[in-house]
Amino acid sequence: MDVVDQAQRLAEQDLERALNKNKANFVGQDVYFNHCLECGIEIPKSRRDAIHSCKHCVDCQERLERQAKHYRKP
Known about the structure:
Number of helices: 3
Number of strands: 0
Strand content: under 5%
Order of helices and strands: HHH
Shape: extended
Helix content: 55-70%
Distance between the termini: 46 Å
């Protein structure tokens, strides 16, 4: 196993831990949105399963987070 494979494995483990932590901290009833509230495209099932109450596709969520960061007051 080379360095790139090891790095990929570590990144996958970190992601898995973060997802498990998110699931462990979740309290309440699951609410699923099949389509993004911003653009209307279907949200992949894997994203809906990983992120509870997911309302946006990855692209829209990233854009919303960039906008929120840009407009935050110091």
